[in-house]
C-alpha cells in the first residue's frame, strides 16, 4: 500500500518520512526492511548456464 499526500488542489505533495520511535514500531520497520531485501534477492534472475562438473 502506498499513501500519497495531496495539497488543497488535489496535487501530490512531499510528506515527511515516518520515523518509528516505539520499540514495537522499530521492530516492525526492521522486519519490513528485511522482507524487502529478501524479495529483491528472490527477484534476481537465475543464470541458466550450469558450469561443467570438474572431475
Low-confidence stretches: none
Secondary-structure element pattern, one letter each = EEH
Shape: elongated
The average pLDDT is 86
Largest sheet report: 2 strands, antiparallel
Tally the beta strands: 2
* Helix/strand/pairing category: mainly alpha
Helix content: 25-40%
Structure description:
The structure is a single chain. The protein has one helix at residues 23-42, and strands spanning 5-6, 12-13. With 55 residues, the chain is mainly alpha-helical. A two-stranded antiparallel ribbon has the order 1-2.
Task: Draw up the topology in text.
Blueprint: E1 5-6, E2 12-13, H1 23-42
Antiparallel strand pairs: 1-2
Name the descriptors.
single chain; 55 residues; mainly alpha; two-stranded antiparallel sheet; 1 helix; elongated
Offer a concise description of the structure.
This protein has 55 residues and is mainly α. 36% of the residues lie in helices and 7% in strands.
